[in-house]
Amino acid sequence: MQKWHSRYVQWVLILVLSAPVLAAVKPPLTHQQYLEDFDFFWETIRDSYGYFNQKQTDWPRVRTIYRAQADTVNSRRAFVRLLGNALAELYDNHASLGTNRPDSRRLVPTGTDVWATFVQGRAVVQQVRAGYGAERAGLRPGAVIETVNGVPVSEAIRPFLP
Fold first, then answer.
1. Exposed, middle or buried: residue 128 (CB in 10 Å: 0-12, 13-18, 19+)?
2. Do residues 109 and 122 touch, judged by C-beta distance below 8 A?
3. pLDDT digits over 92-130, tens only?
4. What is the dihedral of CA 35, 54, 58, 91, to 10 degrees?
5. What is the pLDDT of residue 12?
6. How far is CA 16 from the centre of its chain?
7. Residue 37 CA: distances (Å) to CA of 7, 21, 58, 76, 119
8. Which helix (H) or strand (E) holds 83?
9. 47 has a pLDDT exceeding 90
10. CA-CA distance, 144 to 156, in Å (whole number)?
11. CB–CB of 108/95 below 8 Å?
12. Which run of H or of E encompasses 102?
């Protein structure tokens, strides 16, 4: 009897300790839910964002472009990326999702490893965040950035401009 009881206790403990993990695993959203969530995101910004009068962003066009992309989303990861890209159309470093992926855009300059400015048409590194990837890779102030992933800087920055 004692042996059965201890096994029973072990299984109960495993189930109890696993419950929060199992509860945290949510099923993926349906296609329709992604579209509804995108619409909610877009409408919330349309109704609440206070700086449209200072921007060149055509927010209705943003909806047209990114809602079409929401049609192909099939994971939270892809959805966060899509919302991040749509939000970037505001070119407002203080507008954020409150969640980041490793490749998410970061608040400039506090969330980036490298601060560069254009000097005579060239991207020149001004500061490098101590202890992070860029510094560990050997990037130093004064370095000139000519390409980003093999793409000339002038082309690589286009998606980030209004």
1. buried
2. no
3. 878 888 776 666 666 655 677 888 889 999 999 999 988
4. -60
5. 46
6. 34
7. 45, 25, 20, 11, 42
8. helix 76-88
9. yes
10. 15
11. no
12. none
Q: Is the pLDDT of residue 145 over 80?
A: yes
Higher local confidence (pLDDT), 128 or 8: 128
pTM above 0.85, yes or no: no
H or E segment at 31? Answer: helix 31-48
Contact between 162 and 61 under an 8 Å Cβ cutoff? The reply is: no
Q: Which residue has the higher pLDDT, 66 or 76?
A: 66
Res. 23 pLDDT band, cuts 50 70 90 = low
DSSP state of 30: P
The whole-angstrom separation of Cα 121 and Cα 101 is 31
Is-contact 72 91, C-beta < 8 A? no
Hey, what amino acid is at 85?
Answer: N
User: For residues 139 and 145, is the Cβ–Cβ distance under 8 A?
Assistant: no
Look up residue 92 and give its amino acid: D
Per-residue burial over 133-160, b if 16 or more Cβ lie within 10 Å, else e, is: ebeeeebeeebeeeeeeeeebeeeeeee
